[in-house]
Write a structure and sequence with these properties.
With 356 residues, the protein is an alpha+beta fold. It is 21% helix and 19% strand. It is built from seven helices and 18 strands. The strands form six sheets. The protein has an eight-stranded mixed beta sheet with strand order 6-16-13-14-15-18-10-7, with no helix packed on it. A hairpin with a 2-residue loop joins strand 2 and strand 3. The chain is elongated. The two termini are 22 Å apart.
Amino acid sequence: MSARRIVSVGASVVALLTVGLVTVVLDDSDPAQAASSCAAPAGVSAGTVPAGGVAGFDAEQMKNAQSIMNAAKSLKLPVAAQLIGIQAAIGESTLRVIDYGDAAGPDSRGLFQQRDSWGPYADRMDPAKSSTLFFKALQRVEGWETLEPTIAIHRTQRNADPNHYTKFRTQATEVFKALGGESAAAVDPSGVCPAEGNQVVGDLAGKWVAPMEGAINSSGYGPRPAPPGTAGGVLANFHYGIDFVHPGGPGTIVALTDMKIVKVRNMDGLFGTGVTGQTVDGKLTIGMYHMEAGSVKVKEGDTVAAGTPLGTEGATGNVTGRHLHMEFFAGVLPNPMVPINPTIDPTPIMKEKGIL
């Protein structure tokens, strides 16, 4: 069990608790495009590199990031790979071609601090060639597209700390968007492609379905003991949502009913990656959180039918263990958040619909 930290607004102080362990896979045949399949933006010319730099990086560093993006493009890799490459190089060299190593790797060189075993010195010191070496190694990491970006990089680079690269994701996204032009403007830290928006997916028939077929309700709405050491003590002893786990195998997180997608969160603080939708009758807003980073299969503005795959269950955000956490809000809200917007108990609604 894990707890979200206390959040306070005025006199309101609440905590959100989550629990569970689930693994989920998605059906890639869904008509909404997954982030990992997004096509990379076209390569950009040197003239498009912002002279003043971006996110604390100067023109030289931006040109090196450009080389990384173009190397991924030449290998026909998706947006997710371009972001990972920039993120890795920020963590290794701050986007500079470094001609020295460190105590752990005295022979490390270049943008990615690649050692002698990676290839000739001249290649490791060349931004385009070293980037190609990195991406070819990334492709050998099984399932890299579905891993947390820092884990995918860690398994490629084989560094000591698997979480080392996490803090560089936001900068990498800013650099990518600056270099990718109009086609990259809407890409976010998860690697989701620019929203096509306003698509209708599936048959809108007013049905209700379980959020994960075969899953069990692992934690209900209401009071429950907070984990030891939770900030706020007794104020944390309330669960403002409902959790589901899928024992014994992977599952798929789907839309409970016909809904319009109004918010896609990606690696967003406490909630992690998730989707918020408004039921088409305007009676409810439903948030579904802690999905796998980069797994969201719908876009803001889409209207999806009950049963439409939304994303892969994950453990993003302030949680331990994979699970699905859902929150229900009354009415039409564009981006509801506890404690600003009060939640309602999903249990009676889901029981009335025959899905709990």
